[in-house]
Amino acid sequence: MTEMTEQQKQCAGCGAFLQATNAEQAGYIPEKALEREPAICQRCFKIKNYNEAQSVAIDHDEFLRMLSRIGDEDALVIHIVDLFDFEGSLISSLQRFVGNNPVLLVVNKIDLLPKGMNWNRIRNWVQHQAKEQGIRIVDVLLVSAKRDLGFDRLVEVVAEWRGDRDVYVVGATNVGKSTLINRLIRDYSDMDRELTTSRYPGTTLDLVNIPLEDGRSIIDTPGIVYTHRMTELVDRKDLGAILPDKTLKPTVFQLNEGQTLFFGALARFDFAEGERQSFTCYMSNAIKIHRTKLERADDLYRNHAGDMLAPPAKDRLEQLPEWTKHQLRVPRGGEMDVFISGLGWIACNGKSGALLNVHAPKGVKVMLRSTLI
């Protein structure tokens, strides 16, 4: 967040302190527009003039402060998450703030999954994972913002649950929140009629109230930044490689005990103990996976990180934190995924159990979970 000073102006739309240095942070306005009266940030300008919301980011503590008001209101909460990075984008503390308000869980990027999926199974998996995190949800909607799938059904379900309520839309960065907001604006809000003055309804810092025809509002919250996601740690030049934009093409490896997989120079997967078995990697098709023997892994990384093992390139390696080792034990008979937030997951297909060591940049969430596919 930009440091506040006495000279800073506030956005006439949302109250955010205006700044011209970072287009992805709240309150951004092009420098040449700072002297306009009244001045509104770029996000508010796009909502007012183009009926388009633009995502901005905010840190975890500030985001939770904003959420604290929801439990005191009668509202419908829409929580949007990224299916590719489900545990990384889920707001696990959400239930503490929403009170008894209904929560719709909208799961974006279903287009990344291979064709022929059992969508009821995926929905049940999502419900189970949300319950494990203590989040009570009234429905799960599977959508693809990129392909405009599932949004007609989403609008129907919102209508069923909204009643005479405001709608809060919450989510982490880069999960598709802006696309969802824009679709709701198109279906529920008459912007030409409502947004005719320079100042339209705003609330506390960085929240934007988008008026609806019935006098209620859609409240657009900034995207929360979770530094446990790989996508928040890598250089922008590497985002295109780790964020998949096409259907995932799973890669299957038959591994013996004592073999290692490198995912570029972003993470390492050691099969430390167990019977020979297969592992299926679900990651961006741009990530190069290299197999080697565990005994050679340290030397391989030392000699080839940033060139043969990439991304990131050698000149961007130092931007990532040092790796931390996570020891994971897959139980005998268990069907589990090894999840690496922001990078993807590895399905453990064998049922004989395994001891795994996963190395990833410090802070990145690495965990075992019930298998998604």
From TrEMBL:
PROSITE patterns with a match to the protein in the record: G_CP (PS51721)
GO MF terms, alphabetically ordered: GTP binding
Entries under InterPro entries matching the protein: G_CP_dom, GTP-bd, GTP-bd_ribosome_bgen_YqeH, Mito_lipid_metab_GTPase, NOA1/YqeH-like_C, P-loop_NTPase
Lineage top rank: taxon: Bacteria
Residue span, CP-type G domain: 60-227
Signal peptide, first to last residue: none
SUPFAM superfamilies on file: P-loop containing nucleoside triphosphate hydrolases (SSF52540)
Protein name, as recorded: CP-type G domain-containing protein
